Amino acid sequence: MGYAKGILILMSINIVGVCGVIILTGFTGLFSLGHAGFMSIGAYVAAILTKYFGIPFLLSMLIGGLIASLSSLIVGYPTLRGKLKGDYFAIAMMGFAESIRLLFSNIYPYFNGALGLSGIPLKMNLTTSLIICAIVVYFTFRYLNSQHGKLLISIREQEVAAELIGVNVTKEKLKSLLISAFLCGISGGMMAFYYTYMTPNTFSAELSNNMLAAVVFGGMGSISGPVIATIILTALPELLRAVARWRLVIYGLLMIIVMLFRPEGLLGNKEISLYPFIKRIKKEKKVRDVTIKEGK
Amino acid sequence: MKKMKRIISLLLVFILMLSLVACGGEKKDPIKIGFEGWSSGADAYMGQVAIAVLQDYIDNVNANGGWLGRQVELVPYDISKDFSESINATNRLINQDKVTAIIGPDGSPFAIPLGDIVENAQIPLLPYGSNAAVTLNDDGSVKPYVFRACPVDSDSATVLASYVYKEMGVRRVATLIETTNAYCVGMGEAFVKAFTSLGGEIVATESYPVEEIEFRAQLTKLAESKPEYIFMPAAAYKEVGNAAKQLKELGFSDNIKILGTDGWYIPELMGIAGPELEGAHLIIGADMSDPEFADIITDYNKKHGDLDMELHIYALYALNALQFIEHAILEAGSTEGPAIRDALENIKDLEVSTGGKWTLDPKTHNPKGSEFSIVKVTDSQFKTITKYTD
Fold first, then answer.
1. B153-284 belongs to which homologous superfamily?
2. Residue ranges of the domains in chain B?
3. What is the pLDDT of residue A151?
4. Which of A119, A144, B143, B344 is least enclosed, having the fewest CB within 10 Å?
5. Does any CB of chain B come closer than 8 Å to the CB of residue A256?
């Protein structure tokens, strides 16, 4: 497997996970420090189903995502109904992820505890991961630009006002958490089939932080922003290989610099899209056609 | 906006220049050896010391004409950020740098996923400091291109169990284990299995989460069942320091001592909790205060005193790996992956930097013939009391 290929696969795995965080944090405004927990569930379920029960990997990834999604109800229903938000929700999620990590560390049948699950078949190749990534990004885009997305934005901007005009805040938040957990579960499954080995510690708090960082770095309220940020943040440590031991220092420094100069993130709440370019090209062509006609 | 653009573009230029410097100076066709280790962040001492030691050895080789008449070049990469890094670094070493063999990584979770990658590329990988799954597949078959350059970690726990039972006459041991770390759990399992099969009794078991600093609750509970020793195979020496201090504070330290493994054989620990650890026993692959290491340590201190990091055993395991590769390349007379692999598999009685003559077992790719040292903490220092093999 080529070097560039490996990085591209990693990028698409990260983008799938980040899409989950975009929906929850970027658009619903719920900060979460625990998305690694959902990835962990998705990864373990998918890996176990394929390794021990021979279920095709795409199907088991889907099941992994669904189970991650269901498990988010356990923490989501009580916290969101209790209108937990801001730091409190973030910390509840962090607790959830930590307890998942400790739970998996101590289950030995199938999970193999802290020793880690090895011998997972390598299934993730460039084409599969790019296709999954493209589907997930398209889905996220369509979802957030639909009626559902508009409701989520209204909750993010002014929760009380949203409730007053009749938005069922708890239900919408819960829906966004379910989808978010599902996408993270899928991302975890992809990771399992790419790494072929994992321990509960693979899904540490750092992973959650990285995903949250990508969303904040790319711009809350944008989809293309965090996706671009994920690409940059995945590639950057590799580009910095030349500076050896100062690599992670420079990595951190670059993030600080960007956040200082653009506190709203790379794109803020705007989107980069090819549409304006296409429009402009069409327009220019039209103008050219007209001038050519007139010239005749 | 303009200012920011200027700063960012300056930074980018700076980075690009650095990478040019790194790429430049291409000598004609050197043999490249890859290295993966933690050389930034909290565990930077692991990788940086190893790189220094390996570079010294390679400089020495080059001064004497290199291998097969070719110069040798070390390509070190940092993998501190997360688990994905060892895969990326390995891909890069194989595809971009075209290395002949790879040393490292030093953590099992980093090394285990690499088996398939190096097998496809036919590049030998020699991780050091890791558990059994590194060289073996689930079904017990050996990974053809992965060779271990250090003893299997659980072996040392087995040997320690037989030492404390047979030589020290200990019958009651309690365990204090971090349950989320593969190294700690593996060590704990091996020790318990060996100790109970000899007839010893594990009187109590407690656990703690990673980076714990408060052990009083667990220690009090363990002390209730009156063990003679507490077996604590921690991977982080600070945890042992805290546990030992609190054991003394609680007043148990006269009757209960600590047993350990090479995971916390780090000289810095003596600065944290030297007096409190008095009487603790641990087992290690090689003792750094042994006179046979005096030369290499003085040499290292002279050249790398400015690093401000002490030479440790894992750096020497990395050096063992390099010596394996050197032997295999010279033996095979070629730098082709399959030839080196075959030569590695046939290594017999090779003298390595940690002492002893090592033979690789073709069935498991683990070295045989490594000696273990039993170390006792005396006067705030690690003192080897004996060499022991089961």
1. Response regulator (3.40.50.2300)
2. 29-151+294-368, 153-284
3. 93
4. A119
5. no
SS3 B101: strand
Say if A46 is an interface residue toward chain B (CB within 8 Å): no
Cis bond leading into B105, ω under 30°? Answer: yes
Amino acid letter, B319? L
What is d(CA B202, CA B195) in angstroms, rounded to the nearest whole number?
A: 8
B29-151+294-368 topology per CATH:
Rossmann fold (3.40.50)
What confidence tens digit (pLDDT) does each residue in B332-382 have?
988 899 999 999 988 888 888 877 788 888 888 888 777 788 888 888 888
Please provide the distance, in angstroms rounded to a whole number, between the alpha carbons at the two ends of chain A: 57
Q: Looking at residue B20, what is its pLDDT?
A: 45
Q: Is B301 on the interface with A (CB under 8 A)?
A: no
Helix (H) or strand (E) holding B204: strand B201-208
Report the distance separating Cα A23 and Cα A227, nearest Å: 12
Task: Report the side by side order of strands in the sheet with B367-368.
Answer: B350-351, B357-360, B367-368
Interface confidence (ipTM) of the complex: 0.82
Q: Judge whether residue A38 has pLDDT over 80.
A: yes
Neighbouring residues of B271: CB distance < 8 A, sequence distance ≥ 6: none
Check CB contact under 8 Å for B91 and A244.
Answer: no
Mutate one of B19, B43, B78 to test the A interface: name it (highest A CB count within 10 A): B78
Provide the whole-model pTM.
0.83
Tokens, residue A145: 């630009």
Domains in chain A, ordered, with CATH?
A: 3-295 (1.10.3470)
Identify the CA nearest to A185 among candidates A68, A60, A45: A68
pLDDT of residue B26: 43
What's at A209, amino acid-wise?
N
Closest residue by Cα to residue B350 from B320, B314, B330: B320
pLDDT per residue as tens digits for the range B290-346: 777 888 888 888 888 887 788 888 888 899 999 999 999 999 988 899 999 999 988
